[in-house]
Write a structure and sequence with these properties.
Number of domains: 2
CATH topology of the largest domain: Rossmann fold
Strand order of the largest sheet: 3-4-11-10-5-6-8-7-9
Distance between the termini: 101 Å
CATH superfamily of the largest domain: Vaccinia Virus protein VP39
Radius of gyration: 36 Å
Strand content: 15-25%
Low-confidence stretches: 1-22, 38-88
Largest sheet: 9 strands, mixed
CATH architecture of the largest domain: 3-Layer(aba) Sandwich
Structural class: alpha/beta
Number of strands: 11
CATH class of the largest domain: Alpha Beta
Number of helices: 8
Helix content: 25-40%
Order of helices and strands: HEEEHEHEHEHEEEHEHEH
Shape: globular
Length: 376
């Protein structure tokens, strides 16, 4: 029986071998097909090492895999201004002669902001006193630009006339500020002309060229740094302003200068003035590194604005000033509004503002920019 059993086992084994072999081949073929689908075998006719068509395993490229979305195209972002205004929802522009509409800005409960076209001193003298919480501005610098507009500030025949002109303007600013109000004044310096009444173009800074230039001030020599910021600061101090801080705006990406006998200037001043001994200032609104009290050297890169053919100070410079000295819905003043940067920051921080500009073409840039018609 054992032999029969053995014979039976042997017969079963011999009969089973072809079946197992066939099943193994079938499974192998299915596995190969599955492997082809997974790793996408591809024929590479360019491989001539085998004398014919060669197979090469090619992994899926993660960058083109269907499991990952394609990389989004780079697009230029357009910043829009929040709607903070009544009526048509746009920044309102008035002419200095439109007294009735300008007066409406200062009525209780009014929520509008505006740009006013006219001479800064004349417009300010017509505004009601104690109306603004803070003034943040950058007037034209002396002997640096010709803005080609009658009555412009910056091309006075002497630096003392320039200082007197600005002192008169800021006397009006002090009048229209609230008693706890502040003035944040950005001002740059300049060098004497050396007797030249023009300034040649600089290949590294072409816009500095001028056909008209004030003469060297009395008491100064050719190549002297005039010291305009401190002359103005002391003049305003004499007029009754409290000079509270001199802040250094350090520009990491400053304009290059074609000079060989001095360092390239890479900073400007921001002076903090107050109308009274005690004033609005929130030290918690802006903190320095590691939560420390804010220091007096601010590293802020300049930012060009393509639509404006004149200097514009960056929003990052205006924002800390506004946060430190005002609260939402307060009224902010910029008597030299230029391209409207102060207005942009005011809208962002939920403040109202009034900007004044003598040059109608510049005011048009500010109006379009504030209403979202231009890219920021």
């Amino acid at each position: 029986m054992s032999e029969n059993t053995g014979t039976g086992d042997s017969d079963f084994g011999r009969a089973a071998v072809p079946i197992l072999a066939g099943s193994w081949r079938s499974c192998f073929r299915r596995s190969i097909r599955h492997l082809h689908e997974r790793v996408k075998l591809s024929m590479d006719p360019s491989d001539e090492t085998t004398g014919g068509e060669a197979y090469r395993v090619r992994e899926q490229n993660p960058a083109t895999s269907s499991s990952r979305p394609p990389k989004a195209a780079t697009i230029r972002q357009i910043t829009t201004t929040p709607n903070l205004f009544t009526g048509d929802g746009r920044v309102h522009r008035f002419d200095a002669a439109d007294r009735e509409r300008i007066d409406q800005l200062f009525r209780p409960g009014d929520s509008t902001s505006a740009l006013i076209c006219g001479d800064t001193d004349a417009v300010l003298s017509s505004l009601p006193e104690c109306s603004f919480q803070s003034c943040i501005t950058s007037p034209p610098y002396w002997s640096l630009r010709d803005y080609n507009i009658p009555g412009q500030i910056g091309l006075e025949s002497s630096v003392s006339d320039y200082i007197d002109h600005l002192a008169k303007v800021f006397a009006q600013v002090r009048r229209v500020l609230k008693d706890d109000g502040t003035l944040w004044l950005n001002i740059g310096d300049s060098y004497t002309s050396g007797g030249r009444t023009w300034r040649a173009t600089d290949k590294k800074n072409p816009v500095r060229a001028m056909n008209l230039r004030p003469p060297t001030p009395d008491g100064l020599k050719p190549k002297d740094l005039v010291g305009v910021p401190w002359l103005l600061a002391f003049a305003l101090q004499k007029e009754g302003w409290y000079l509270r801080a001199d802040i250094i705006w350090n520009k990491p990406n400053c304009q290059p200068e074609s000079v060989k006998d001095r360092p390239t200037r890479s900073h400007e001043y921001i002076f903090l003035f107050s109308k009274s001994e005690h004033y609005r200032y929130d030290p918690a609104a802006v903190r320095g590194p590691n939560g420390r009290n804010l220091r007096t050297v601010w590293d802020i890169p300049t930012r060009p604005y393509a639509e404006a053919h004149f200097a514009t100070f960056p929003s990052a410079l205006v924002e800390p000033c506004m946060k430190l000295a005002s609260s939402p819905h307060d009224l902010i003043l910029d008597p030299f509004v230029g391209a409207g940067t102060t207005g942009l920051v005011a809208l962002k921080l939920d403040r109202r503002f009034v900007g004044i500009e003598l040059n109608p073409s510049y005011l048009q840039i500010a109006e379009s920019r504030l209403n979202g018609d231009l890219i920021r």
